[in-house]
């Protein structure tokens, strides 16, 4: 069974090393990890290659750790939506267990106004006690397994693979049944 | 023909007014606009309702204006991926025409290192002269129309519908043919 390994891991200083570690963990559970192309080459070529890998895969494990803001990496989120629509098994993890409203509060002032939470631009802050936007979180709930988060954020948020391994274990069990 | 009107517009102070304006513009071009539920009610109910609307729609027009960071709203991006995978016509606009690397530079220091652009966390900054992550931009290129952006950002980035109307016009032409 093949698993597409979505995430901003492609933007790490050593993406090939991370690809190797993630693929090895997959192999330990009898799965084949497919790692997206990193940010080299032409962008359209990367798009087509990633789409081909997604179409080949039986499942996605998305690294939804917040990336340059309170939410997950946009490319990863796109891929989660794509895989959900294709009926693939959807798993994801975030190495930051904080709830969305608390994540937003790190970047901007939040206040309560007229029964809602609003940010400095007066835009509503989703406040469902979920770690990120409800579309992603419930896609995982309904089409795979609930978002895997550690009890507390690991020291190395971009390299710790404990929650990733938990996703691999869940994927292996679900794909076998 | 039905068009799903994705975007962080649901988080505006008056989402129902924006829904009315967008639906009216759609009607002027012979299209039926489907506006997602706003952030009230139970989150799972919102998810299911939005998914039902997406499944009904022939196309998506996604508001990809950057939201709380350099990239588009995560929920909107998820929906774009979903609609691309379902083979629906994909359109989108951003009221901020800035390129991604320039957007990132507003939030964090960027430097050139080893042939790449990196941010303060040493994570690579995509540098393809595109306004956002390549997955979304090329999905529009291949499955609809290239991202619509104004020459310069409008004064009211969350309420100006010039680029939205351009998407409606393109959608009407494409869906008619």
The number of E-state strands of chain A comes to 6
Radius of gyration of chain A, Cα only, in angstroms?
Answer: 16 Å
Query: Average pLDDT value of chain A?
Result: 96
Enumerate how many helices of chain A there are, as a single number. Answer: 6
The H-and-E topology of chain A, N to C, reads as EHEHEHEHEEHH
Approximately how much beta-strand content do the residues of chain A carry? 5-15%
Secondary structural class of chain A: alpha/beta
- Helicity of chain A, in percent? 40-55%
Largest interface: A-B, 57 and 57 residues
Compile the SSE list and pairings.
The structure is a homodimer of 177-residue chains.
Chain A (H helix, E strand, L loop, with lengths): L1 E5 L8 H14 L3 E3 L8 H14 L2 E5 L10 H12 L3 E5 L6 H6 L5 E3 L2 E3 L15 H10 L18 H15 L1
Parallel strand pairs in A: 1-2, 1-3, 3-4
Antiparallel strand pairs in A: 5-6
Helix pairs in contact in A: 3-5
Give a verbal description of the structure:
The structure is a homodimer. By secondary structure, chain A is α/β, with parallel strands linked by helices. In chain A, about 40% of the residues lie in helices and about 15% in strands. In chain A, strands 2-1-3-4 form a 4-stranded parallel beta sheet, sandwiched between helices. The longest helix of chain A has 15 residues. The model of chain A has no long low-confidence stretch (mean pLDDT about 95). At the A-B interface, helix 2, helix 3 and helix 5 of A face helix 2, helix 3 and helix 5 of B.
């Amino acid at each position: 069974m093949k698993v597409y390994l979505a995430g901003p891991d492609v933007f790490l200083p050593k993406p090939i090393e991370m690809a190797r570690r993630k693929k090895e963990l997959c192999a330990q559970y009898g799965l084949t990890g497919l790692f997206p192309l990193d940010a080299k080459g032409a962008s359209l070529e990367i798009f087509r290659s990633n789409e081909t890998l997604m179409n080949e895969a039986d499942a996605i494990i998305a690294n939804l750790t917040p990336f340059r803001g309170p939410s997950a990496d946009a490319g990863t989120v796109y891929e989660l939506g794509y895989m959900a629509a294709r009926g693939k098994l959807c798993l994801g993890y975030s190495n930051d267990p904080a709830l969305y409203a608390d994540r937003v509060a790190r970047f901007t002032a939040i206040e309560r106004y007229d029964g809602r939470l609003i940010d400095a631009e007066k835009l509503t802050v989703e406040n469902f006690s979920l770690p990120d936007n409800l579309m992603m979180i419930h896609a995982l709930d309904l089409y795979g397994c609930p978002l895997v988060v550690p009890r507390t954020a690991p020291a190395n948020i971009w390299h710790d693979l404990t929650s990733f391994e938990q996703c691999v274990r869940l994927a292996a069990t679900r794909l076998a049944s």
